[in-house]
Amino acid sequence: MTTTKAEPSIEASERAAARRLQPAPEGFDLTGLAAQAEAYVGKLQRDICAAIERVDGQATFRLDEWQRAGGGGGLTGILSGGGVFEKAGVNTSVVHGELSPELQAALPGDGASFFATGVSLVLHPHSPYVPTTHANFRFLRRGRTAWFGGGADLTPYYPFLEDAVHFHRQLASACDRHDPDYYRRFKAWCDEYFYLRHRQETRGVGGIFFDYLPADVAQVQEFWKEAGAAFLPAYLPIVERRKDTPFGERQRHFQLYRRGRYVEFNLLYDRGTVFGLRTDGRVESILMSLPPLVRWEYDFHPEPDSEEAQLASFLRPRDYLGEAARS
Q1: Confidence (pTM)
Q2: How far is CA 85 from CA 15, 20, 75, 246, in A?
Q3: For burial by CB atoms within 10 Å, which of 74, 78, 200, 292 has the most?
Q4: What average pLDDT does this structure show over 182-204?
Q5: Higher model confidence: residue 11 or residue 195?
Q6: Domain boundaries, the chain
């Protein structure tokens, strides 16, 4: 089924999920779980950086360690000017301290103290036929309340149905091994979250997005790890399939134009960007998600029936796995 926008109940469901979070039982080792989450995001960063360097074949990541004045810090990994990737950022952070009154009102839990760790990545390829992608996997704690969040999504410029199906199939498999309802819920959540309301279009072909999953539940902990591990097999086969496709100035022009939508979303809606800036994170690391080159063009419309015009049919929620099953 194809719709113009995800059901409006998703936002209400998200608020309900945050309200349902309860403090972890007395005796549950939240400190130990936070250490495990920190170790996992560090390993995931190393694994993803190594895999991206292998497929790129030319450039390597610059690793930049930073400290946060309010407590904690992180490790920013940036690859630039590679053979496949024009810019790739894979960041980890481990931050703690005191929440502002504004964030205290917005986040579950109690008290002003918080702890957050996560890995966040955005990969911008050279080729317009290779999609941009984003993923984030995080653990947050406020008082005795802690939760996991994350997800991954795909933003093609010249989309292929088989690529969207592959990406969703890998993420669905990770979901299905833990809860048969996860993929349906988290795909709908992703379609709702990565929606540019002012443009009335999704950012790309979606994926999964989840938040406020209770951290003291063993099944949730294992799912969070498996969702992170599913990113590389979801994305890299698409890169290998498309990276050598010839392209010219027309395709590059369209890619730069469509990158503008990516910038608009990240600066207007992205909660990771907002959280990082409001907790005095390192600006260079927070804004590493932005592409190195981009353009805005006034009132652009692709030629009817052109390769560029095909993108519009992908910029709304679609049941890619259902379409594949019926074909």
Answers
A1: 0.93
A2: 37, 41, 20, 15
A3: 74
A4: 96
A5: 195
A6: 9-326
Strand-pair partners of 95: 72, 116
What digits encode the pLDDT tens for the residues 60-85? 999 999 999 899 999 999 999 999 99
Are the CB atoms for 79 and 65 separated by under 8 Å? no
d(CA 60, CA 62): 7
- The secondary structure element, H or E, covering residue 47 is helix 30-56
Q: Assess whether pLDDT exceeds 80 at residue 2.
A: no
Name the active-site residue from 124, 134, 166, 168: 134
The encoded tokens of residue 119 equal: 């890995």
Asked if 203 contacts 196 with a C-beta cutoff of 8 angstroms, the reply is yes
Kindly indicate the confidence band of residue 286, based on its pLDDT and cuts at 50, 70 and 90: confident
Verify whether residue 301 is a known catalytic residue: no
CB 224 within 8 A of CB 263: no
Instruction: Judge whether 77 and 123 are in contact, CB under 8 Å.
Output: no
| Residues 6 or more apart in contact with residue 1 via CB below 8 angstroms | 319, 322
